[in-house]
What we know:
Two copies of one chain form a homodimer. In chain A, 33% of the residues lie in helices and 21% in strands. Chain A is α/β, with parallel strands linked by helices. The first copy, chain A, starts with a helix and ends with a helix.
Amino acid sequence: xxxxxxxxxxxxxxxxxxxxxxxxxxxxxxxxxxxxxxxxxxxxxxxxxxxxxxxxxxxxxxxxxxxxxxxxxxxxxxxxxxxxxxxxxxxxxxxxxxxxxxxxxxxxxxxxxxxxxxxxxxxxxxxxxxxxxxxxxxxxxxxxxxxxxxxxxxxxxxxxxxxxxxxxxxxxxxxxxxxxxxxxxxxxxxxxxxxxxxxxxxxxxxxxxxxxxxxxxxxxxxxxxxxxxxxxxxxxxxxxxx
Amino acid sequence: xxxxxxxxxxxxxxxxxxxxxxxxxxxxxxxxxxxxxxxxxxxxxxxxxxxxxxxxxxxxxxxxxxxxxxxxxxxxxxxxxxxxxxxxxxxxxxxxxxxxxxxxxxxxxxxxxxxxxxxxxxxxxxxxxxxxxxxxxxxxxxxxxxxxxxxxxxxxxxxxxxxxxxxxxxxxxxxxxxxxxxxxxxxxxxxxxxxxxxxxxxxxxxxxxxxxxxxxxxxxxxxxxxxxxxxxxxxxxxxxxx
Lengths: 242, 242
């Protein structure tokens, strides 16, 4: 039996302000929860309708009814398990390698894809402006899966961070230097902007270079989605001969 | 006044079988409809709550109430305009350049992103297996925007098409040849597989090469999303020095 106040508390973690206030977030579904349990992110409590799931973990767990799970879930069709995790403390950025900066990325799917890309390309630090979507948003989690545990995600004043990093800073633009002729330094910062408005004026002022992915064919295409542009730029930075 | 049977007919176009049977599809929202009206896709009829929208087009248009629009719409919050378009007839593939093949891609968002990528990278032919998500699915349209009019999308038997093309065929795999050392021919076919199961056994048999995007860092990342992998591979094929 889960008490009403507990259900209300768990449900409240769907909102960013409650996640920030408590330092907790919720993950749902067998695959997602199982994957996060294998990472360094500390689990606080598991609620499940599946008795088998109880036995496999040392985390405090509770068997709940489907109706109870539905009431605490943020999903239309909850999937057997919901777990509360502690948000890991972000380490201050060390700038030992390339660092990715997000300036106002809003779409949870894009954010999730970008975190997975960082994991794939060995980018261990992701700096986000305060107005970038919260990475513990349930929709972001759904798109990152376990990758979120392997990237140090820091919400911070990007301008200040850029100045402190003392590294070359590149921004992605529709009209910039051809990315295929960019001589990438050994390490630096790459900034990706908002889906509609791109990189903010303030950050434009502190960039060292503007890069663009050339368009082929009829040049009629509108623009690349920010997540696919990030994929291409990280690949360009990491590929040999870059 | 829109009659009941008309509303029912328009609503039915949310389903693939009715789109196939009638050769029609529905697009919604001011941005989407305006963009499609500028392409070669023939518009059949426009329904709008906005009198201004009526004047700007030679297409048969009807002013409707918000309640009527809501009843014909597939969206929770319809956005002022809905239009019925004719599905353009796909031309038989000519294989004059690189062609992208999708083998069972299911997610509408991925499909939409991939069509936009084709447009960006000047890939004018996209061949899809019959079990790939329908490109006139409303969610695909939302992700492609006008790009759908600039790519010849053909649903076909991929195995037969590959044999007929008589071109080198590459497939994307988790374990294949390093994509950075692949010597791409001037033209060929690139196959991307299903989100969970990859490329089907039948298609694997007719490939000439398997390519992989190398993983950097801790090698713990699960996999790249099919749309981001497509972005990276098309960039590799198109970039100079490829």
